[in-house]
Predict the structure.
Amino acid sequence: MDMRTEYMGLKLKNPIVVGASSLTSDMNTLHRIAGAGAGAVVIKSLFQEQEGMERFIEEERMRMYDDLHAEMVDVMPTLRDRGPQNHLFWVRKAVKELDIPVIASLNAVDLEIWVEYSKLLEGTGIAGLELNMYSTPVDHNLDSNSIELEQVRIFEAVKQAVKVPLSVKLSPFYTNPLNFMTTLDRIGVDGLVLFNRFLQPTIDTETLTPAYENDLSYKGDHKLPLRFTGIAYDHISADICGSGGIYSGQDAARLILAGASCVQMVSALYRSGVDHIRTALDDLSSWMEAKGFSSLSEFRGSMSMANSPDPEAYTRAQYMKMLRIPKKEI
């Protein structure tokens, strides 16, 4: 089967992209990912907050013995902050050693840092850059339009600063994700990843303290990105990458049928191991052969909302249909 596809202008040998995670922060695992046949890899994100915390911890460590005696003002020399250099070294090493496209991932807060770190990451030789757009509103007076305009302003600044292909990994929490996707498409985004998955807080009822759980996605979680992929297909020129709940080759086929160019896989690899990439590719190949498809281009978007024999499947009408199914049939 010809599984070649194009994403962000990059030529991929197949549509399985390993998303940003701790799996992509280890060189041995990265080599195993490439060896298992992944089409591309997204390196674990560079976080502005993480860099700030590391600088703070290092400063505390360096100053812990200051002023022990009246004569002792400073026992440690002044060191120049390395900032994100350790991460950049890691990305550069991955680019050099892997024979598949390496995409960097960035999660920042301040516009200046978005631009600065994007330029630094571009300098490592990456094939593309994924920007993680997310905002947790805590101001009751802040309207949704203000949040979106700020994210558009960030993307435009990064777009102007770098030449590397850019994708945006979106959250599903926009009033109208389609409108925001169209806006980004209009100003030159190369790819859209639907959707990002975030840690959500909970409360430990024993200690009465905030708690965090690293929840993995489950089979079936791909339905939300599938819906918006299918609706957006043929309405935007940017490539779409489905993300969330991609566990098998047939899950990948579902997203491609809806119009995705590729899919990101993470949770399935945590559950089944990196070699699951090969299993998913075999599954996709077998499905294509059974359906008489010899390439992805033959069926990509054939079941999008525009091309589906039942376009109502992408609308709320589907919800009404489920309500009419007798309980014993569900």
Q: What stands out?
A: Confidence is low (pLDDT under 50) at residues 52-62. The radius of gyration is 22 Å. The CA atoms of residues 171 and 197 lie 7 Å apart.
